[in-house]
Amino acid sequence: MSQTQEKIWKAIAPLAVLAILLLIPVPDGMPPQAWRYFAIFVAMIVGMILEPIPATAISFIAVTLSVLSANWVLFGAQELAEPGFKAGKEALKWGLAGFSSTTVWLVFGAFIFALGYEATGLGRRIALFLVKFMGKRTLTLGYAVVIIDILLAPFTPSNTARTGGTVFPVVKNLPPLFDSFPNDPSSRRIGGYLMWMMVVGTSISSSMFVTGAAPNVLGIEFVGKIAGVHISWMQWFLAFLPVGLLLLIVAPLISYCLYKPGVTHSSEVAAWANTALGEMGKLSRKEYTLIGLVLLSLCLWVFGGKVLDATAVCLLAVSLMLALHVVSWKDITKYSSAWNTLVNLATLVVMANGLTRSGFIDWFAQTMSTHLDGFSPNMTVVALVLVFYFAHYLFASLSAHTATLLPVILAVGKGLPGVPMEQLSMLLVLSIGIMGVLTPYATGPGVIIYGCGYVKSKDYWRLGGILGVVYIAALLLIGWPIMRLWF
Asked: Where is the chain membrane-spanning (predicted)?
């Protein structure tokens, strides 16, 4: 197949999927607009996987199409019949809502942190330091990336702030040291593997601790109010620890085998890094300033959560970076990766919200409850956890997924006789972080890592699918049996 034919096929495939789904009769009980919206959503996902045009353009087109056809795909007949309801105005408000999401701006702020590391040279200095001591083997360098994220996780309740704002800016400086560059065949030399290690690290660390990701706390609130199950910080940690330790050892190895980098070891590069560090000389004023801002941000993220939102902290840091001349506004306007990711995540957040807005999620919950009738309690637990976990393909945010679907799943489980709600509740909340590995838009750090251009779309979806199965299998086959010893 020629390149031209391949491009044509990739462009036709999402349209074909959309047409086929629209021709299929609406499932029983589902609002007609929900099925039509779901067809657009699935076509968008297919387009993002195949990328006939950039993924951000695909999600932008999907939102635009949904806004223009809102009377048909978003609003029900009853809503349209309400006096004073202005469909066009409401549709546009819905379509632009993603740009007011705090998660979207937190991700954008993380990109500006990365720019600061790059502009001051601090990122290169830290990267050279890591290569000097751990760069002789790519595998050990990958483990270092994962371990750094896990060490920061107990104290940083936002995985986007942690991985995107602290780890990513440093790791991003490593690949160029090995002549590996984004959006280039050389990305497979080492850059793709190291970037993927950040996805592995943040997904494990987000489930390892209650404070590893913001939606974990939300999940605990839901299970307390709906299921009457109260989970302490230590209970959470001990329940996931066996799974977390196993995944910490196994996930980087699996990734190394499935996505083996071109550079596996290089003692010469480690020696060169030592020389390059000497050539850089002492820390500059801008580097000291950036270090101070990073430490300030970490302190506010850890200790100031009740006073300042993580996004507000990030925006404060960016403002100080501008005021103190760490980066210039001109540099920010030229930083296309940040703006591209801002639009991409904002549109994906809106599209995921549309599944609820159109009535698809409510229908999904009712249908699931009907189909689970007659299952044994243990089979019901497995089914509910798997549905909750893999439903994340439909969401662009861990927080949105938790807020939308966790109450529904808990309510379904509570309504079925014999279901052990303590075990179900614990498995559901422990799966929140690890589901962040599934897709490029599954969580804030994933969007950042995908947006930097080292991991191709098809590779991200393939690796995410495989490791996603490994993660949930480890939780159900290893974590659950151990958990049952005290629940």
From this structure: 7-27, 33-50, 57-74, 94-117, 193-214, 234-259, 288-304, 310-329, 341-361, 381-412, 424-443, 463-483
Residue at 487 is within a domain: no
Start-to-end CA span in the chain (Å): 56
Question: Which residues, in sequence order, are CB contacts of 442 under 8 Å at separation 6+?
Answer: 392, 395, 396, 398, 435, 436, 464
The domain of 284 spans 102-207+233-255+262-327
SS3 265: strand
Q: Give the whole-angstrom CA distance, residue 459 versus residue 457.
A: 5
- The distance from CA 306 to its chain's CA centroid, rounded to whole angstroms, is 24
What local confidence, expressed as pLDDT, does residue 354 receive?
A: 86
Residues 158 and 187 in one domain: yes
Size of the chain in residues: 487
**Contact predicate 193/449, CB 8 Å:** no
How far, in Å, CA of 321 to CA of 296, rounded?
A: 12
Angle at 417 between CA 391 and CA 406, to 5 degrees: 25
Strands (E), 193-249: none
Q: Using CA atoms, how far apart are residues 231 and 425, in angstroms rounded to an integer?
A: 9
pLDDT digits (tens, 9 = 90+) for 385-421: 999 999 998 887 787 788 778 878 887 888 788 889 9
320: helix, strand or coil: helix
